[in-house]
Known about the structure:
By secondary structure, this protein is an alpha+beta fold. It has one domain: Porin. The chain has helices spanning 11-22, 46-58, 144-152, 159-165, 204-214, 219-224; strands at 25-26, 31-34, 65-74, 84-93, 97-106, 109-120, 170-174, 189-196, 236-247, 257-267, 270-279, 284-296. The longest helix has 13 residues, at 46-58. It is globular, with a radius of gyration of 19 Å.
Amino acid sequence: MASMTTTNPTPEELVADFMLLLDLQPRGGDLFIGRKHPEGLGRVFGGQAVAQALGAARRTVAEDRRTHSLHAYFLRPGTDELPIEFRVKRDLDGSSFSNRRVVASQNGQPILNLTASFQTHQEGLHHQAAQMPDVAPPEDLRSDNEVRREVAAQLPDGPMKTLLLRPRPIDIRSVEPRTWMDPQQREPKAHCWFRTVACLPDYRPIHRAILAYTSDYQLLGTAMQPHGLSLHKGEVKAASLDHAIWFHDDFRADEWLLYATDSPWSGLSRGFGRGQIFSRDGRLVASVAQEGMIRPVKPKG
């Protein structure tokens, strides 16, 4: 993972390293190793663990079966200093569907459980009730990377500044202004466009893995919006608890996708978030749901 820590990697280098991160190393049977990727905060990003676990399950399924859903539970925080071991159980290979269970472990302890389902392509009834939100197009929005650089310029040297300045393989453009360090209370709804910064191969599992990775962004942040608390200022402790994705239609992760999120409820130190992901032409290509821990941190002294 050299390029993603290089000062000025090209977009192509960033995406090549990103695909390497998601490309697991086989260890015989149904055991795979996911490469480590230091984030700068010492822990594994949840989207990385989900995407790698999906990749492990995908490697044990026939090529003609497409991922249509996954359900994951985050059990323990993973460390970004170690690779992750993924062990797959083949629960079902039916005439139309396959089902896999994956346990992700570090140091002999499970950090994530994931179940994924795969289906052969079949035509059937179709409707789409959800309409794509009418928001500003990505060309009219600033990249979150640009906003991060402005925030980082106001911070002292340290892990947070390094994290904000790290080059990223996914270009995210928030419709509503980002206020990481000084959030204002607002309705629990958010929208952002995203795509990789360079082109991807014409291989469906790569695009679905990248959507799975990116889907872990924004949901907990949306649940915190009504409370005006900043994760980056240490005002709240947050972590994903469980995560689900349903893939409805084909898409490309190197073309703009709109991620619309809302949070209908929070309480009991948890927040619930929902997401809908649309292609540029208005197709609903995936739905997401997540619950996470949101625990206010009392100021010291």
